[in-house]
Amino acid sequence: MRILLRVRPGASRTAVGGRYDGPSGPALVVAVAARAVEGQATKAVLAAVAAEFGVRRSAVRLVRGATSRDKLVEVEGEEKDIQERLERLLA
After folding, report:
1. What is the mean pLDDT of residues 14-34?
2. Which DSSP category does 5 fall into?
3. Rounded Cα distance, 67 and 37, in Å
4. Of all helices (H) and strands (E), which one includes residue 80?
5. Residue 30: helix, strand or coil by DSSP?
6. Which end is more exposed in the chain, N or C (fewer Cβ atoms within 10 Å of the end residue's Cβ)?
7. What is the mean pLDDT of residues 16-27?
8. DSSP letter (8 states) at residue 32
9. Is residue 6 within 8 Å of 70, Cβ to Cβ?
10. Residue 30 · residue 7 · CB < 8 Å
11. What is d(CA 28, CA 4) in angstroms, rounded to the nearest whole number?
12. Alpha carbon distance 19, 77 (integer Å)
């Protein structure tokens, strides 16, 4: 399942949750402590998303947005479970 993300690098702590209504539609907000330098924030985002959705890190793949705050990721797993968790996190 593909999920739009809005990344907030340099946060005081890592957190997944909240909604950002951007130009591509509603996106899940992911705040990470890592800075947006040399892909550190992107790596932290993928790890945080994997942990939040209860999947292995290798089950989360970046589709678009390696150098952008707006990212599209693909999460492999039980689509029904992922959709339910996503709806809770966006609320």
Report:
1. 95
2. E
3. 9
4. helix 79-90
5. strand
6. C
7. 94
8. -
9. yes
10. yes
11. 6
12. 22
Residue 23 is encoded by which pair of tokens? 């130009």
What pTM does this model have?
A: 0.93
Say how far apart CA 84 and CA 80 lie, in whole Å: 6
Share of the chain above pLDDT 70, in %: 100
From residue 27, give the alpha-carbon distance in Å to each of 4, 19, 23, 30, 31. 5, 6, 10, 9, 13
CB 65 within 8 A of CB 1: no
CB 8 within 8 A of CB 20: no
Give the contacts of 60 (CB within 8 A, at least 6 positions apart).
46, 49, 50, 53, 73, 74, 75, 76
Q: What's the maximum distance between 2 C-alpha atoms anywhere in the chain?
A: 34
